[in-house]
Design a protein that fits this description.
The complex is a heterodimer of chains A (444) and B (182).
Chain A (H helix, E strand, L loop, with lengths): L11 H7 L4 H10 L2 E3 L8 H22 L7 H10 L4 H29 L7 H23 L4 H12 L11 H10 L6 H30 L17 E3 H26 L29 H9 L3 H21 L11 H21 L6 E7 L6 E5 H26 L11 H5 L18
Antiparallel strand pairs in A: 1-2, 3-4
Helix pairs in contact in A: 3-5, 3-9, 3-10, 4-5, 5-6, 5-10, 6-7, 6-9, 6-12, 11-12, 11-13, 11-14, 12-14, 13-14
Chain B lengths: L1 H8 L7 H28 L5 H5 L3 E4 L8 E6 L2 E7 L2 H9 L22 E5 L10 E2 L5 E4 L6 E3 L4 E3 L11 E5 L2 E4 L1
The chains are: A mainly alpha (444), B alpha+beta (182).
Chain lengths: 444, 182
């Protein structure tokens, strides 16, 4: 895709094909001989893990679509049919349902790795933006997929998310309502909604696959970032992708499959919600509505704001922050290995996001830190979930809007090595046999 | 496998090519078994599901079928012909028992003893699966409109491209006018 091609056709057929469709050259230059920094650690295997997640979701999803019926009268029973009657249907559905959770787990690790090692900075801004687009498409796909079983949580998830757009009624009266009516294809979430969600749920993964292609293209122009955050200076800084990272990625994928399989076979409903075993009933909402775990931080931000429109806008802004990040961060140093202060802010950012997720799963008025009891009702009073959500959401936005722009101007950083190889060769790495692909985990 | 070829071409002192080959073969074998075990559920899910297999047998009241007429019912998604044959049709079928046929079978072997008036066959042409039309064709049995196969009053193939007689479903008479198919 970029740089000098190392492909040499070995047979007459390969030479013939190479002058007509250089597909073997492309495969060689992107997946076999691609020069990759030799110090990538296991956080870098999540790209490959995510590719596998997408394949697993598409394969199991195509199978499920063979047995599922996208009709409000039949959908719930068709899912029961998959679980009870279709050969291995239970397993394929549990792989698909838990696969969505594993997909998000992997993407959050992948994003966090990018944040820590500054993978969004020049010259990788487009790569980062494409990743953000993939994340948005993933959220849309997961949301619509969750609606398809047409249980109570499916139904009210669809009701709540589509109603987010009704907040725009406050800007121009009628516009929000017009949008929701258009999304629903009626005056409530109903058969028309289910049918179009199924159509889009089938389409979007292929759009994700397309953007993944662009993401990899944009990766291979500047090449991988690495834990040191110093660009590749010479061939000595790299190893060929195959076999070094094909094997490393394959090993990581197999390890990743262990918790995946544990969920599928031992706790398949652990990440779901019991209310989704009840068929959708448009006349009665379950008592406690929560989204899937991977949306909880955003859900907490939404609920933290008492104003409908502002809450919705703030929730969307939380994702918009990621898009803006390459231009918010003023530090020239990529890796936080050499930014000790930034490392602390980053750690708190991860904690704040996890804390928001925890808040999203609780009732807004639950008391986190009790100050005492209400004199009349006897109920605990104190610091509530919604207050905690506000504090954590404030930090979430401050990280992007204050810390990232200002820290780069004022922080004291550690000396950055000249090249990827320097920390290995100068600090205790000299004893390494030459040519060993050592990862400089500890450096000065 | 390109790697093992490389290892073979340039064996170094501390790298035994045979051990390297063994690791490659062992790893690929395990991966192959794993891939096959993973692929099987995804192939098998397209086979008939449990609820489809459960629709195995049905009961049918045949008292309303007049002599010389047939009833067509659906069993496992396919048509089944229940034909109340006339004495003349039975006689014609028995007379041809030893005629030159593609799939020889006696009329008695295609009906239940004492119930020769009832011919029960699966109404699917053995050529390419169309449903033959009742009472047409040279032998007064069925005629398939798709490619011109001709069946006699015992459902045996007599002319045209079909290779076999109309198939017989498993059935038994559960009463004088009651039949259980499947």
């Amino acid at each position: 895709m970029s740089g000098h091609s190392t492909y040499e056709p070995k047979t007459a057929f390969e030479r013939w094909l190479d002058t007509r469709l250089p597909i073997l050259r492309l495969a060689n230059d992107t997946a076999l001989d691609f020069p990759t920094p030799k110090n990538l650690n296991y956080w870098w295997t999540f790209g490959g893990i995510l590719a596998i997640c997408l394949v697993v979701q598409i394969v199991t999803g195509i199978v499920l679509a063979m047995h599922y019926v996208a009709n409000s009268a039949l959908a719930f029973n068709s899912v029961e049919h998959i679980m009870r009657d279709v050969n291995h249907g239970w397993m394929i559905r549990y792989i698909h349902a838990n696969g969505a959770s594993m997909f998000f787990l992997a993407v959050y690790v992948h994003i966090a790795r990018g944040l820590y090692y500054g993978s969004y900075k020049a010259p990788r801004e487009v790569l980062w933006l494409l990743g953000c687009v993939i994340y948005l498409l993933m959220m849309a796909t997961a949301f619509m997929g969750y609606v398809l079983p047409w249980g109570q949580m499916s139904y009210y998830g669809a009701v709540v998310i589509t109603n987010l757009f009704s907040a725009f009624d406050k800007i121009i009266p009628g516009v929000g309502t017009a949008i929701t009516t258009w999304l629903w294809g009626g005056f409530a979430v109903d058969n028309a909604t289910l049918n179009r969600f199924f159509s889009l749920h089938y389409l979007l993964p292929f759009m994700i696959a397309g953007v993944v292609g662009l993401h990899i293209w944009a990766l291979h122009v500047p090449g991988n970032n690495n834990p040191v955050g110093v660009e590749v200076k010479s061939k000595a800084d790299t190893v060929p992708f195959h076999p070094y990272y094909t094997v490393k990625d394959a090993f990581a994928i197999l390890v990743f499959f262990i918790p995946f399989a544990w969920f599928v076979f031992f706790a398949p409903e652990a990440l779901g919600h019991a209310d989704n075993q009840v068929p959708a009933n448009p006349l009665a909402t379950p008592i406690h509505i929560v989204p899937e775990w991977y949306f909880l931080p955003f859900y907490a931000i939404l609920r933290a704001v008492p104003d409908k429109l502002f809450g919705v806008l703030l929730m969307f802004s939380a994702i918009a922050m990621l898009f803006a990040l390459p231009w918010l961060d003023t530090s020239k140093i990529k890796s936080m290995r050499y930014r000790p202060t930034a490392r602390w802010f980053f750690g708190f950012f991860i904690l704040a996001t996890l804390g928001l997720g925890w808040c999203g799963g609780k009732l807004p008025d639950d008391v986190v830190i009790p100050f005492g009891r209400d004199a009349v009702s006897g109920e605990a009073v104190g610091f509530t979930v919604v207050m905690m959500s506000r504090v954590l959401a404030a930090y979430y936005f401050a990280y992007f809007l204050l810390v990232m722009p200002l820290l780069g101007l004022f922080e004291k950083t550690l000396p950055v090595p000249d090249s990827i190889s320097t920390p290995v060769l100068t600090k205790g790495g000299a004893a390494m046999p030459s040519g060993a692909a050592a990862a400089p985990e500890k450096k000065g | 496998m390109a790697e093992s070829a490389k290892a073979n071409a340039h064996p170094t002192a501390d790298e035994d090519p045979n051990r390297r080959d063994f690791i490659h073969i062992a790893a690929l074998s395990v991966a192959g078994v794993g891939a096959a075990a993973t692929a099987w559920p995804f192939i098998d899910q397209m086979n008939p599901s449990g609820d489809t297999l459960a629709l195995a047998s049905i009961e049918q009241d045949i008292s309303k079928i007049a002599v010389g007429q047939q009833m067509v019912i659906k069993w496992r998604g396919k048509p089944v012909f229940i034909r109340h044959r006339t004495p003349a049709e039975i006689a014609a079928a028995v007379k041809d028992d030893h005629a030159d046929m593609r799939d020889p079978a006696s009329d008695a072997s295609r009906t239940k003893p004492g119930q020769q008036q009832w011919l029960i066959v699966i109404g699917v042409c053995t050529h390419l699966g169309c449903v033959p039309n009742f009472g047409t064709g040279d032998y007064g049995g069925w005629f398939c409109p798709c490619h011109g196969s001709v069946y006699d009053t015992s459902g045996r193939i007599r002319k045209g491209p079909a290779p076999l007689n109309l198939q017989l479903p498993d059935y038994q008479f559960t009463g004088p006018t009651q039949v259980k198919i499947g």
